[in-house]
Amino acid sequence: MESRIERLCVEQGLKMTGQRRVIAQVLSDAEDHPDVEELYRRAHALDAHISIATVYRTVRLLEERGILERRDFGGGRARYEPTEHGRHYHLIDVDTGRVIEFEDKAHEALMEQIAARLGFELVSTRLEIYGRRREARAQSAPTARAAATEEKDAHP
Fold first, then answer.
1. All residues at 6 or more sequence positions from 42 whose CB lies less than 8 Å from its CB, including other chains
2. pLDDT per residue as tens digits for the range 108-118
């Protein structure tokens, strides 16, 4: 069965080698935003003949053709997602690097209103929100208070 990415490649006239098909399938199946190294691990598990160089070349080609979008969520590694992915936004957990995709009609309406108020027609939006889970923050707070108490007790 042809994957979504493979279909886009064929539409763009790209030659689909067996290794490109595997990489396209891995990208289409990804529910996260893999970096090249993770993409390589997944593709290599399906075809041991795929090299990291092949993955880099394929990702670069797909990005140049507008099939993939590069995302930089911090952490020093570019991550990728299909361009044809619908309007959505990203919430990045600063502790784990996990990326959560979400849609928000109210945000979209607000962006449309802002663009119109400033005399523009909205063409595209990008929103990346960085945060920390409340449970993680709540768990670290008692530790900080305990350390402060220990410090105070140590120096009467």
1. 26, 30, 34
2. 888 888 999 99
Give SS3 for 111. helix
The CATH code belonging to domain 1-85 is 1.10.10.10
CATH topology of domain 86-156: Dna Ligase; domain 1 (3.30.1490)
Residues 22-47 as b or e (16 or more Cβ within 10 Å = b): bbbbbbeebeebbbbebbbebbbeee
Q: Looking at the whole model, is its pTM more than 0.90? A: no
DSSP category for residue 91: E
Q: How many residues in the chain?
A: 156
Domains in the chain: boundaries: 1-85, 86-156
Query: Quick check: 23 and 55 in contact, CB under 8 A?
Result: yes
